[in-house]
Amino acid sequence: MRILLVEDDLVIGKTVKKAFAENQDECIWEKDGQAGYDQAKTHQFDAIVLDLMLPKLSGLDILKSLRISGDKTPVILLTALGSVEEKVTGLKAGADDYVVKPFAFSELLARIDAICRRAVLKPSPTLEGAGLTLDLTTRRVYSGKTEIILSPTEFSILELLLRNSGQVLPKRMLCEHLWESDWEGATNVIEVHINRLRNKLKKCPNVAPIETVRGRGYVLLPH
User: Fold this and answer.
1) Domain ends where: 84, 119, 154?
2) Taking the complete model, does pTM exceed 0.85, yes or no?
3) Engineering a disulfide at 207: which of 10, 131, 162, 219 sits with its beta carbon 3.0 to 4.6 angstroms away?
């Protein structure tokens, strides 16, 4: 894999870069936000590992700018211990996952592997329903001729909901689909992704809504 690491902590940066090298992955390490953003805009990466607190340009500003421009590269945020607000803000801005400092490299690698698998191109052509067309080869979403820009995680959630249109999917089932069958994390993480996806779909009047079924989960209603 080719990874962009944007981290100003020299100890963390050196450790993570070395670990990637030992795992036979290429890691480009930038120590300030502006340099990291420039790398992300001019080169292609399989994933971006992004610290939030950076000199020159914050990680959140980098993330927002990438998503606004349509860049769908999977992004994992590095957050401080206990900063729930930062995690939620980052996920709403378009991050696919987060890792809390201090962290084990094995955890970071596992999360990168998971989001990269979700972003891999698939041979199936399109999936249609609920006023949407999902191109499963390019992983693009359209409402008529209008493209809806989604992150890899949002696309995976929408694909699962559309394949099970009209059926209520529990939060845990969505989590297990995204983060492997042995997921043991908090299911409230999925709420952030669902709300972000729902808000994007609401901008298209001909798209069926994602409904919350209290105590059960979520359902994408047939159009």
Assistant:
1) 119
2) no
3) 131
